[in-house]
Amino acid sequence: MRIEGEIALVSGGGSGLGEATARRLAANGAKVAVVDRDGEGAKRVAGEIGGFAAVADVTDAEAVEAAFSQAAEALGHAPRIVVNCAGIGTAARILPRDGSLSIDLFERTIKVNLIGSYVIMSVAARAMAALDPMDDDGARGVIVNTASVAYQDGQIGQAAYAASKGGIASMTLPAARELARFGIRVMTIAPGLFETPMAGGLDAEVKAAIEKGLPFPSRLGRPDEYAMLVQQIVENPLLNGETIRIDSAVRLAPK
Prior knowledge:
Blueprint: E1 7-11, H1 16-27, E2 31-36, H2 39-49, E3 52-55, H3 61-75, E4 81-84, H4 103-129, E5 141-146, H5 150-153, H6 159-170, H7 172-179, E6 184-191, H8 204-212, H9 223-235, E7 243-246
Parallel strand pairs: 1-2, 1-4, 2-3, 4-5, 5-6, 6-7
GO molecular function: oxidoreductase activity
Family: Belongs to the short-chain dehydrogenases/reductases (SDR) family.
Protein name: SDR family NAD(P)-dependent oxidoreductase
């Protein structure tokens, strides 16, 4: 699918991987709706790339539907490219040393990361299905969700996070199979360790230790490298129903 001239929507587009994706899509000629619960972040990015900003919490279906409707009205029609980067990073043991329970955190993590991704995908699919096909294959759009390498090698304290990201990866193939009749592709990217706000609190010593454990290249990923993979997924029509790790060949240790 071409990017130039198309309409895209990026959730979590106000920072990190989402911001990089919004910028790359815009640089390649897309009209981009930047959706984030942080209105200031969304407005900043949208203003710098000539896009449209909308505020929405991905767990709120009505707010997400409103954001899609606003984007379609502002940019011309519903997006054909939807990238879901909204999510939270959490850490808590199933059985902490003090004997407390972390069930509330587990529920919140699942709600934001997994249910939020499902909400975005559902609203996007309905909007795309109403569009006319754009080529001889009958393509109408592509949805890219974001998992994490933790879905396969989650560390101690990542039970909630790994479960939420594993759910995203697991629903990729059935979603792609279901939406195939509408000409909608579904893909998932599982990033490793990236230079994002989630990693912003690392001190130099901890960061150096992490990078030493990355086979090659031995550094944190750059957000635009995630965005580059989004671009390649959009442009390659045979990429569908798969989760792709982008991680310097790292396999996370237990802790």
